[in-house]
Design a protein that fits this description.
The structure holds two protein chains of two kinds.
Chain A: H1 2-24, H2 26-38, H3 42-55, H4 59-82, H5 86-96, H6 99-118, H7 122-135, H8 142-157, H9 160-173, H10 178-187, H11 191-203, H12 207-218, H13 225-246, H14 249-262, H15 267-290, H16 294-307, H17 312-343, H18 347-360, H19 364-381, H20 383-393, H21 398-413, E1 420-421, E2 425-428, E3 434-442, E4 447-455, E5 460-463, H22 466-472
Antiparallel strand pairs in A: 1-3, 2-3, 3-4, 4-5
Helix pairs in contact in A: 2-3, 2-4, 3-4, 4-5, 5-6, 6-7, 7-8, 8-9, 8-10, 9-10, 11-12, 11-13, 12-13, 13-14, 14-15, 15-16, 15-17, 16-17, 17-18, 18-19, 19-20
Chain B: H1 2-18, H2 24-27, H3 38-61, H4 65-74, H5 78-82, H6 86-119, H7 123-181, E1 182-184, E2 189-191
Antiparallel strand pairs in B: 1-2
The chains are: A mainly alpha, B mainly alpha.
Chain lengths: 473, 193
Amino acid sequence: MSRITSKQLLKYLVCLSVLLLLSACEVNRLRSIEEHYRQRRYAAAIQEADEFIRKAANGAFITRAELARSSSYHQLGLMSLQRDNQELALKFFKLSNSEAADKDLAALYKQRITEAIQANDYEKQLIYVNNILREIPRSELVPEMMYRRINLYLDYLGHYDHAWQDYMDLFDRYPNDSYEVAARKSMERIVPNKKAYGQRLAQAGYYNEALTQFFELAKYPVVKTNEINQLIGDAYRGQAEEYLHEGDYLEADRFLRIALQYVPDQRPQIEAKLQEIVGLFIKRGDEYLAVKDFDTAMTYYQKVFEIIPDYPPGLQAIQRLNTTKQNIARAAQLFELGQRSEASGRYAEALGLYQQANSLDSSAEIQKHIANVQNMIEADRDPQAFARKIINQYRGGLLIARVNLKKSELLANYKANEVRDSGWKFLLSTSQYKYEVRYDLMSPRETFFYVWQVNLKDRSIIPLNKISEDLMK
Amino acid sequence: MKRILLLLFLTLAASLALAQKFDIEAFSDSTKYGWENYLDRADYREELSRKQALLQLYELEINSLKRGVLKSMVAPGWGQFDNKQSIKGSIFLASEIAMVGASLYFFDRSNYYYQRYLNATQVEEIESNYNAAVAPRQYSLIFAGVGALIWAYNIFDVIQSTEEYNARVWQRIEAKDRESRVRMDGIGIEIEF
């Protein structure tokens, strides 16, 4: 009895173990999917895979199930093609979403493009070409499709910018591919317009935009190198001329030099232009030197050498600048000495020093001092005579003339013996260099007492009464 | 027999009634996985390619299910040790040793009394030895049975734990891969695609 019990127990245990093993394994369910695929039961494989992917815990198994599902869709797509069901095949290839399926999908699209070409339906051609380019960007058909799209844009849609964009992409990604080489011919229809547009931009002063246009063209083998270099060189020269006009000579120089790289045959003209720029620098420096802005003047002279090193006129200009600076320094010294001499009453010496200073660096200040010192010398020599001279020379003898006129008026109204005058009287005034000048006119009914103060230092005349003031007007 | 045939017939009828018609439109709907356009498809493919590249690494790092089962069949708990579950493995091993030990002990006791029963000549002695041999035999069987159950559960468990372990291996590999694609520095975050 005990032996039977043991055997039965063992049997139950074995059954239980097998059941547990079968039910526990996630891997068994994955194997089932893969087995379906191997047995070409693709729909079953897909359905089980969908279920498995939703529920499974192990990411690696899910990945394997996804791969099996992808392959199954691909096979279903191929089977649909065999049965001439292209629509279904398209869907299955898309669901497969793999490199292999993409290859078949691209072939299918290409077949449809061929049919559209035969039917002369360019819209459908464009749709399928776009589908390949957009959905299967790594397809080997991409260069061909880009070429086709370029021609569709040019032939049917007139989208020249899009065609150019496609060509650039084609060249950037597949340089020297047979389709890229073929597309160069198509680009001959666009390039002249693009060149003309760039030239128009340059003529309108949009140099950067024009250069962008030309450089874009220069990157691609659709235009002769000499031709595009000429356009670029011209644009840079135009830009340089503009900077020249604005007075930004360094920028003008920079652009001329860049232009020279593109159009070396124009070297003589460009170098002449550079020399013209250099001359303008010197001229501008001279202008600053004239107003004694030495730093700015030097900056301009130095810029000359950035364009033409050791340019002789530039060196001469700097020499001039240094001499001027030395003269000014010397003039300042002489002026200071002159002031000291003047202060100590040595007017003749001061005058000499001031005149020397003025010859080195003429200024209103020095000239004023020269005039003052000359006045002082004359005042010292004969102050009364100098005062007379001042009165006589005042506005070309205005005072003398008007006094004489007034006297004539009185003589016309009165008898000669009735009109009397004092004559010009010069009297020392409040200080050494100030004189009072009087002239009295008397008639029976009218009297005129003119009186002024003359400052010998600065030759100024101040009226001391109303009628004297009126006479000076 | 009739009952079995009736049962089979009913099962077939029910399955036919419940079976749904295969919907080819739904089956071939190219948006059914949430890929609304080519960009979504490209994203999915990118992700799948990334995961596919990790499968090789995964195969190198996982524990073999077959090997784990074999090990646990030979020594309960061994497979769990491989899956880094040393406590569980120790419990299985100790339990199995205890059950087998107890079973052998009682089997030995039973055999001892059974030999005495065979050698006995007196009726009373025969009866007492027989009775003394029956109880240990039953205990021995019970412990052997429990031991067998533990052994079987140990096999079931090693399958579960190996799959869990392997799932964790995948998660770790994937996380490491993501980390290697995302780099953080003082300036910002850089992601490799």
